[in-house]
Amino acid sequence: MVSPRRLNGMRVGFLFNHDQIHQVAHSLPIAIALSRLSPAFEVVIATTNELLRQEVNRLLSLYPDPFPLEMARLQSRRALVGTAIKALNGVIPAAKIAIYRDNLDFFRSLDALVVAEKTSAILKTRYGLENLKLIHTRHGAGDRAVGFNKTSAAFDFVLVAGPKIRERLASEAGVAPERMAIVGYPKFDLPRKPELPVKLRGNGRSTVLYNPHVSPHLSSWYRHGRSVLDFFLANPDYNLIFAPHVMLFERKIVLSIDKMRVSFPGILDPKYACAQNIHVDLASSASTDMTYTESADIYLGDASSQVYEFLIRPRPCLFLNSRGADYAGDPNFAHWSAGRVIDDPSQMKGALASAFVDHRRFGTVQKDLFTRSIALEETPSSTRAAIAVSRFLMGGDLATSGRVSADHAVNGAQAA
User: Fold this and answer.
1) Relative orientation angle of helices 24-37 and 50-60, to the nearest 10 degrees
2) What are the pLDDT digits (tens) for 407-416?
């Protein structure tokens, strides 16, 4: 049921429509900041399954003060009654796509929809909701080409973490600079929760976070992942946190969305989780809220944007080039300049042994990569994002550079 529109107010929806929870932390802080900014905004949080609803509530519970948010649960009629869609959902996000067609009345009730993914562009391209302002928050500050494809230009306004993303969206996706604002990284604004009892803490060994991506043509998992786990099984002098992209084991078959590749993640042998020096987490909230990027000493990965969350505090990084990519000078692999790149797990022993010595030549590079990707300021990123959304919807002017600065944020909040 669609709630009535508030008189003289602006109804702004924040949609969470995915099989997993990894996008919630990127835009929920903006919803909270916008609800606090002005009573002119009626903020609606829409979730499409129980997992997302629980994650939204979990994150909301971390905030000490209440805020005026309306909660909505969207469902798909076809997802509820169609066995074909349920079967397809094991391979492709059929239920996710069906949500849009089956909830058009809800989307028409909004003045603006804020999302962290791009599928919602079909509300304009397929369903003709031209009066609905679509605002893209993105979810991460990574370098993968798919993050800069032409779909980004379908959005009315895009919030970006730093100048690198703004420049690539302008040059590769054709997004006009005036339709973007640099706001930092709202996920960093989440209140910190009590530490989880990870069995590896306090044993004095260096802890490696292995964070393979899900995409078949970029991930190290399909070719080398089990060899990586076997290395740590045989080398208990290192701790390992195995926390892959939360979608890696979500489906039996993985299709890449930017290149037509099919891969099978397989089943994880329980011997790894039973090892005293290995902590396995395939999809919990700790995999998405920076618990592991904050606690690890060394990052081992391939294409995940989580490396930039790790780089908020410069530390050694290793990258596994399992696909033989010609990465030198390629902006899609810019993060590989943050550490040593190896081609095979057989090189891990030497790479790990020299990781902290090697890091001396990567520290400055890491800082430059981070500031180009994520532009933080004294004003919280979620506040900057809320101000940017407010100015866009109310017809205000942004800074000429596209950056929502501390002065703009403070002045905007006072004016509101």
Assistant:
1) 50
2) 444 333 333 3
Tell me how crowded residue 142 is: count the other CB atoms within 10 A of its CB: 21
Q: What pLDDT was estimated at residue 94?
A: 75
Query: Quick one: which of 47, 45, 46, 12 has its CA closest to 133?
Result: 12
pLDDT digit string, tens, across residues 34-63: 999 999 999 999 999 999 999 999 999 999
Q: Taking the mean position of all CA atoms in its chain, how far away is CA 31?
A: 16
Specify whether the CB–CB gap between 156 and 179 falls below 8 A.
Answer: yes
What is the Cα–Cα distance from 2 to 368, expressed in whole angstroms?
Answer: 47
Measured CA to CA, the distance from residue 214 to residue 261 in angstroms comes to 11
Taking the whole predicted model, whether its pTM rises above 0.85 is answered as yes
From CA 104, how far away is CA 415, in angstroms rounded?
34
3-state secondary structure the chain: CCCCCCCCCEEEEEEECCCCCCCHHHHHHHHHHHHHHCCCEEEEEEECCHHHHHHHHHHHCCCCCCCCEEEEECCCHHHHHCHHHHHHCCCCCHHHHHHHHHCHHHHHCCCEEEECCCHHHHHHHCCCCCCCEEEECCCCCCCCHHHHCHHHHHCCEEEECCHHHHHHHHHHHCCCHHHEEECCCHHHHCCCCCCCCCCCCCCCCCEEEEECCCCCCCCCHHHHHHHHHHHHHHCCCCEEEECCCCCCCCCCCEECCCCCCEECCCCCCHHHHHCCCEEECCCCHHHCCCHHHHHCCEEEECCCCHHHHHCCCCCCEEEECCCCCCCCCCHHHHHHHHCEEECCHHHHHHHHHCHHHHHHHCHHHHHHHHHHHCCCCCCCHHHHHHHHHHHHHHCCCCCCCCECCHHHHHHHHHHC
| Confidence at 9, pLDDT banded by 50, 70, 90 | confident
Q: Look at residue 414 in the predicted model and tell me its pLDDT.
A: 34
Tokens (6 digits) for 282: 């395939």
Distance CA 157, CA 187 (A): 19
Q: Which residue has the tokens 């998405």?
A: 288
**Contact yes or no for 374/161 (Cβ under 8 A):** yes
pLDDT (mean) for 341-350: 97
First to last CA, the chain: 30
